[in-house]
Amino acid sequence: MASPQMRMRSETQQPVERERKAGLRLLNAERSEEIFPLLLEEVIGLGHRSAFVVKVDFETSAIAPVASLNCSRGFLQKQRSTLFAMENPIVRILHGFKPEIIPSKSKTESRGLYVHPMLYRNRVACWEAERANASTCLAVENFQCRRRLNLPDQVCGTCDMRAYAAAVCVELKPSTKPAEIAQLGSLIELANRYLSRVFKVEHYYNRMTDMETTIGQMRTVLESMADPVILTDGQHRVITQNKAAERFFKLPEDVSEGRVRAVELNNLLFSAALSSMAVAGVDSSRDMTLVDAIEGEEVLFEAVSAPSYGADGRRTGMVTVMRDVTELRRADDELRQNYELLTAAEEVVRQDRDRLNLIIENVGDPIVVCDKDAKIVLLDPLAAELFGDEKVARQAVHVRNQAKLDAYIAAFTYSFSDRESAPLHLFNPGTEAEVEYDARSGKIYDERGMVAYTVSVLRDLSAVRRLEQLKMERRMLEMEKFAVAGRMAGTIAHEVNNPMEAIKNCIFLLQDGIREDAQPVYLILKTETERVARIVRQMLGLYRNTEQVGNIDLNSVVEDTLMLFARQLERAGVRVEKELMDLPPVVGSADQIRQVLSNLVVNAKDSMPQGGKLRIRTRIARDGIRDVIAITIGDSGCGIAPNLVNSMFEPFVTTKGERGTGLGLWIVKGIIENHGGKLRVRSKVDHGTVFRMELPLVQ
User: Is there a contact between 698 and 649 (Cβ–Cβ < 8 Å)?
Assistant: First the structure.
């Protein structure tokens, strides 16, 4: 018969035996998913009605049942929640890390719901933390309750492993004793320890699987590369290499002596290159010439090296990728040579372009370039003035000129002649006067012999006509001068000849009757008579034009004229102001221009008897479509009466009375017109007079 003592021992051994059997079952679990079903079976085996496990998804912060026994589907659906629903008792207990009993609303059915949190934790640090000598192991911190249960904290700072969190919920029977609750908690803690170990093992297994997959992928990538890739250790010994590198650095079985020497030479060169880069302390690229062990040819490589590092950050070796740049280097040399040739050709083209632009700029005639469809593609500045710019609003005269040009260019483009010259009547945009141009055109052909462009040069014939007219007028003037000089010479010869003959006869008759003491006077009389005869002969030569025409520096002529009259102007109290702009040379007679300036300066001085201001200015101006050189001479004198302004350039018209001849301004106007220029005057009584001369700028 069993004694009470024996019964007590039997009752105390029974929970221990049950716990041992439950531990063995849990220990036999190979996966973390098997722990929760085994744990629930053991919990129900303790006599409780039902149990379930809720687990936290740290990716979404959701809490949902993952295993259950004797629980309805509707009841489990109500247990879904989130980590942030603190009003839920299960969530609150899960955040607190301590088991609690949620009392039952009905005291007769159940004592309540026992909730026991399960979290990844351990007494000792993991292998990664011990190796890294780190104090941030998540398992130890959770065991010591250093962290709160939230999404950012449940990641290990050493191995980057994301932990698990769950809660075992057991519906207690009404008569559950504290000892039974303690036994239940012990069982759940035992399951949590096993789960932590299995979870960590699975983490290692998953990492190994991922690493093997990564290694396999990297090996596949390495073998698929056409360039040699070599991994060496800290002593420059080869750890691994792909098949492309084995062609140069690895010896297969049964090879010739020549291939052995080629591989040994390649290894020697490669090791020397790595050692050189290591001594230099830089990881960069370097050219290297190796021998193809199979073909026996030299191959130029660019070896690009980069260091490899271990988990502790120390340098463990070097990865070298060798790119075959033999053809690339040859192509680079050819490209460099071609670039040099292209640069030289570009310089020649640039010089030709500059020379052509210089020629175009100095042609002085409008130039028009059209394409194969007779459309304008290029205009020089002079042509742009005639036909306008499409980017801005054009005038009606531009449209009319464009229409005439289009008709001419279209006819020439589609004709069979290579060159053509024809008159073209256009309108001056400034004066709208009709101007005759001599259009000279030529064609440019492409490689197929088709017309690519046409070039037309428009020569202004009005300037030629004007020049011819000026020549004709000058010739008529010369002829008129000849006639006047002839008449003057005839008159002088007729009027002077008879008295001179009488004087000469008298002198001749007196030759023998002159006393010796009067002989000097006789010689003076004879000499002066001969001088008068020479003067008459010189007057007969006035019609001859012996002026030399050439390039004139107008500013120098102005300076010389002012210097000549400087004393006279100073005595008359005239203050001179000059504004001389840099000017190009002008074709003409320097003496005649000086005569013009002298007449105008003297007239200005005479118009300011009480003194005043004389201003002379030279500059480049615009007269219609051409550039001219303008010379302005202004004074602050008495001015000219309005009734004399229109007739002041006629001969023998003067305002000086007996002191003037009335020929000065007539001569000035004639000289300016002979030079192809214009003379304008503005005057106001008691305010002064301004003369403006415009001489053509010949390019």
Answer: no
Residue 312: φ, ψ to 5°: -85, 5
DSSP 341-364: HHHHHHHHHHHHHHHHHHHHHHH-
The angle, 0 to 180 degrees and rounded to 10, between the axes of the packed helices 4-27 and 178-224 is: 20
| Lookup: tokens for 146 | 């250093």
User: DSSP assignment, residue 25?
Assistant: H
| Contact in structure between 430 and 625 (CB atoms under 8 Å) | yes
- Return the axis-axis angle of helices 35-45 and 4-27, rounded to nearest 10°: 160
Taking 3-state DSSP, the helix, strand and coil percentages for the chain, each rounded to the nearest 5, stand at: 45, 25, 30
Main-chain phi, psi angles of 211, to 5 degrees: -65, -40
Closest CA relative to residue 199, chosen from 140, 149, 139, 153: 139
In the sheet that 112-119 helps form, which strands lie side by side, from edge to edge? 81-82, 62-69, 50-57, 165-172, 112-119, 100-103
The type of residue at 347 is: E
User: Pick from 264, 326, 324: which is nearest to 293 by CA?
Assistant: 264
Cβ–Cβ < 8 Å for 671, 686: no
User: How many Å separate Cα 500 from the centre of its chain?
Assistant: 91
Q: Which of 693, 670, 667, 690 is nearest to 607 (CA)?
A: 690
As a whole number of angstroms, the longest Cα–Cα distance in the chain is: 214
Which phi-psi region, left, alpha or beta, contains residue 97 (left: φ > 0; alpha: ψ -120 to 50)?
left
> What is residue 70's DSSP assignment?
S
Taking CA atoms, 452 is separated from 362, 374, 403, 445, 539, in Å, by 25, 10, 21, 5, 66
Would you call 376 helix, strand, or coil by DSSP? strand
The tokens 């320890």 sit on which residue?
A: 193
How wide is the angle at C-alpha 204 spanned by C-alphas 199 and 206, nearest 5°?
Answer: 90
Least confident window among 60-69, 104-113, 686-695: 104-113
Return the axis-axis angle of helices 461-509 and 664-674, rounded to nearest 10°: 130
Classified as helix, coil or strand, 103 is: strand
Encoded tokens for 138: 């998540």
Q: What is the pLDDT of residues 642-682, one digit of tens each?
A: 888 777 777 666 766 656 556 677 778 888 888 888 888 99
Backbone angles phi, psi at 252, to 5 degrees: -75, 175
Give the containing element (helix H, strand E) for 282.
none
Are 267 and 311 spatial neighbours (Cβ–Cβ below 8 Å)? Answer: no
679: three-class secondary structure by DSSP: strand
Tell me the sheet residues that pair with 370.
376, 454
Q: Using CA atoms, how far apart are residues 14 and 696, in angstroms rounded to an integer?
A: 133
Count of all residues that appear for the chain in the document = 699
Contact yes or no for 357/368 (Cβ under 8 A): no
pLDDT (tens digit per residue) in 296-352: 778 888 888 888 777 667 777 888 888 888 888 888 888 888 888 888 888 888 888
| Residues 213, 47: Cα–Cα separation, whole Å | 47
Could you tell me which of 432, 409, 425 has the C-alpha nearest to residue 462? 425
